[in-house]
Amino acid sequence: MNKKWLLALLMTLVVAVLAACGASDKKDTTSGSEGPTDTNTEDKKVLVMGTSADYAPFEYVETATSDEIIGFDIDLAKTIGEKLGYEIKVENMDFNSLITALQAKKFDIVLSGMTPTPEREEVVDFSIPYYETEQYLIFDKEKDYKELADVKGGLVGAQVSSIQEDLAKEFAEEHGFKVESRNLIPELVQELKTGRFDAAVIENIVAENYLANNDDLAAFPIEVEEPDFKAAVFQEGSPLKAEFDKVIEELVADGTIDELKAKWFVVE
Ligand code: ARG
C-alpha cells in the first residue's frame, strides 16, 4: 500500500516537472506564441526586424547583384543579435508603415535609421541612440542654390512620415516653397532628376551616397534645432530595450560602431 502511494506521488511529480519544462520552453520565445518569433528554429530565438530598405548605406538592396537587404543597420542588428543569442530576420516595408506594423507585432524590432521623436515615443520605445546625422538640401547642380531662401516658389520633396517631411514643412512657411512627399527615397531622387522637384530634404549620410554616384546633384547642410539620432525601436514596454541598450553601449565603447561607419559610409 505504502509503495503504491509513493509510486503515485512520484508519477505526479514527474508529470508536473515535465509540464513545467514544456511551459517554460514556450515562454523562452520573446513575445509569446502569436508573435513573429514563432518562426524560431533550433535553439536560437529569431527576432523579426522591420526596415525600409530604401536608405543606402543604412538599409538597401544592391539590386544588380542580389535581393538581400544589406547596410549599416543590418550589420548592427546582427552584431547585437549575436551577442544576445538572437537570429535576426530582416523584412522590408515602406518607412511610413513600420511603426504600425511594430505595434501590430508583425516585427519584434525596427532598425531603419529611425529618429526618436516625442510623437513616436508615445507609441513605441527607443533604444539609446547609436548614431547622429545632419540634414541636407539636395538638388540639381544647375539650380545652384546656396540657402533655403533661394528655393522660394519651388517644390521640395521629402519622405512620407519622416522627420525630414516635418522639417521641410516647417521651412516651407518660412521660405515660401511647397512640399510634396514620396514613400521611398529613390522616388525623391527620381523627381529631382526629372525636374518635377526643385530640391529634397534628405539626411547627410544618405545624400552623400547619392552625390557620390550622381555628378548632376549638389547639396548643402540645413541648420536644424533638433538633433537627428538613430535608435532601434521596440514595442512599448518590451524587455528587448534593456538588452539592446546594454549591447549598444558596449559597441559604442569598443569601437564596433566606428568600424561599421567606416565600412558603410561614404563620409564620416
Ligand atoms: N531619420 C528619419 C526619421 O526617423 C528618416 C529615416 C528614414 N529611414 C529609411 N529607412 N527610409 O524620420
Your description of this structure?
By secondary structure, the protein is α/β, with parallel strands linked by helices. It has 9 helices and 15 strands. It has helices at residues 2-27, 72-84, 98-103, 118-121, 163-175, 185-194, 204-213, 240-253, 256-264; strands at residues 45-51, 54-55, 59-61, 69-70, 86-92, 109-110, 124-126, 131-133, 135-140, 155-159, 178-182, 199-203, 217-222, 228-230, 233-235. It has a 5-stranded mixed β-sheet with strand order 5-1-6-15-7. Mean pLDDT is 89; it is low at 12-34. Arginine (ARG) binds at residues 52, 54-55, 58-59, 95, 112-115, 159, 162-163, 185, 228.
Core attributes:
268 residues; alpha/beta; D-Maltodextrin-Binding Protein, domain 2; 2 domains; 5-stranded mixed sheet; binds arginine
